[in-house]
Amino acid sequence: MASDRAKRLRRLARTLTDRFGLASHRHGVVEAEWSGSARAWTFAWTDGPTVAQVRAVCRETEPVASEGLRYARSLSQDAVALGAVRLTILSPTGRRPRVQPADVEALWRDRPFPGPRTERERALVYAVVHEVHAAHHRNSADAAEICELINQYGLAVFLRRCGAELSPAETLTAHYAASHAHPTWRHQLATMDPDALLRAVRDDPRASAALLDAALALLPGLPGLPAESAESAAAEDELRARRGRASPTA
After folding, report:
1. H or E segment at 73?
2. What is the pLDDT of residues 60-104, one digit of tens each?
3. Got the DSSP string for 33-70?
4. In sequence order, what DSSP letters do the residues of 203-244 get, joined into one string?
5. How far is CA 36 from CA 40, 42, 45, 70, in A?
6. How far apart are CA 98 and CA 93, in angstroms?
7. Distance CA 174, CA 151 (A)
């Protein structure tokens, strides 16, 4: 009976692997593991489907053999880094975010196949994971190390390292955040208020061509400065005049 159940569970693991397309997934297949000490079978996999999804297929396909089966979905270092990045960005502004491994687990609990939505997310994840590898001189990173790195340094340093393209507001915030007491840029990539950014550029006699270009790009959408107003026209004229005299570097 025991060997028959083992065969059925291993067959079920292959069914799950095929059902969710895990054979081609870089983290591999669903593994059927027996623990002699716990006297229990466990299905283990990385990222991929949620526990609820796997449990539902097991109960539908092998209700008897899967009785008492345990499920262990682990998260890859990339999934942990992605979760930590998203949670940091989405944390309420006004206080320094502190993301913990349990927060990342909760984020992905009901979300299958965690993966970057954008190239920026992908680049941030790579930069964070690479930094942990370099700091510990190994090609692996655990959840606590990833979360602590982001908690300590914030995301702005990794955005610079990965070479992501910045919006005009991000370009200006990256330059002025420190001098304008705006730490949420460093930690969460939250930009400064557009009107504050324009004032910062106009008050900066050494603003480079890159900063003036960013301010000019930001100018038409400023809520406190209607595009057709005389004040807006004056600000644009001032910025363009300075742009012709400015150095190209930020």
Report:
1. strand 70-74
2. 999 999 999 999 999 999 999 999 999 999 988 767 779 999 999
3. EEETTTTEEEEEEESSS-HHHHHHHHHHH-TTTTTT-E
4. T-TT--HHHHHHHHHHGGG-TTS-TTSHHHHHHHHHHHHHHT
5. 7, 11, 20, 14
6. 12
7. 18
Span 233-241, mean pLDDT? 91
User: What digits encode the pLDDT tens for the residues 21-65?
Assistant: 998 777 889 999 999 898 999 999 999 999 999 999 999 999 999
Task: Tell me the residue type at 158.
Answer: F
Name 72's bridge partners.
44
Percent helix, strand and coil across the chain, each to the nearest 5: 55, 5, 35
What are the C-alpha distances in Å from 86 to residues 119, 135, 210?
14, 22, 29
User: pTM of the full predicted structure?
Assistant: 0.90
Per-residue pLDDT, 141? 96
Name the amino acid, one letter, at 125: V
Q: Give which of 219, 211, 214 is closest to 237, Cα–Cα.
A: 219
